[in-house]
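Lab notebook, bench 4. Still working through the backlog of constructs that have no structural model yet. Next entry is a single chain of 385 residues. Request: give me the structure tokens for it.
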Amino acid sequence: MSDLSVRPVSSEAEEQAFLRLPWTVYKDDPNWTPPLWSEHVRFFDPERNIELKHIDFEKFVAWRGDTPVGTIIAHVNHAFNEFQEVNVGWFGQFEVLEDREAADALLRTAEEWIRARGIKEIMGPATFSTNSEIGLLIEGYEHPQMILTTHARPYYRDFIEANGYQKQMDLWAWYFDGRAWSEDRGGALPEKLTRVVNKIRRRRNFTVRTVDMKHFEEEVERVKVIYNQAWAKNWGFVPMSDEEIDELAKDLKPLVDSEIAIFVEVDGKPVGFGLPLPNIYQPLRKARCKPGEPEWWQLLKLIWHWKVRRDISSVRVWALGVLEEYRGTGADALLYYEMMTRGLPRGYMDIEMSWILENNDMMNRAIKMLGGEIYKVWRVYEKPL
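Model written out:
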């Protein structure tokens, strides 16, 4: 008789098991980045994570006897369902040891929780939406995790697909090797590409400026306008409330490099923006600590590698949006070009542009034109219940 059980989290000990399991799953994976413990705890706390105000969820842990071997969350995102005019549930925080029976039981438990609420379709993984953590890494395990992206064990894909889940959408990460340009052209991009981008700039009277950190709150208001218009028709989009954006901006402000965060404008009006984030996961991996160790020690090591040694050579273009009436004008290519030409001299040699929907042909063409290559793929699955 199997000693496996899956139970909802209902005690502090079970909560700790749920939170700590990733350190066990990825203990020998150098490409996984352990989060700061306080941020990890806050992410799952409805009192502190604003996104959870419109999400019903349950956390589960799979146990073999007294040993935790897997976790999953089942959730219903009411804001997503309302905006997309659908009725689906989700699974997320799917972390499991190489134990097929445990994986099957976790997925089955999430499905039963969703089905009990009268919902006939489940999607995932997402914790908790396209605005936070989404997608299962299915290609690119050998590359280090970038800021605000997910990582996974290769066997997760087999476990999920064996349970009848089918592809809903792939999300691409493009990679740009700045060292190639630095070695061959002293950091400059190809002349032909520069001519094309300058032609785009002149034809549409585009101007580019960096984010004004002295008036950060006003800049955030400009981003809100572009964000809610630019992403509204995208697959999986769920609007962020002003409160959610303000909270996210407060969290990200210390990470923003104002020399590479930019707006593109026409006659002084912002029509697009690009926000690359220096990859703080790079020094965070070097500050790796075990759960329960003093966080001040992890923070001290992080500050040493980040602020003193400046061990950040990678950057992720985390957000980019262009107003609909300016799509197809080359504004997206201009944004990518400007972020790279400003970032290379600042030492950002490993550039990830992610994630991009696989069916976003316009943006994918622009990145490919710049010389990017797809090096990671995340997948969102679906299954009828």
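Notes after review: The mean pLDDT is 92. The chain has 13 helices and 15 strands. Flag for follow-up if needed.
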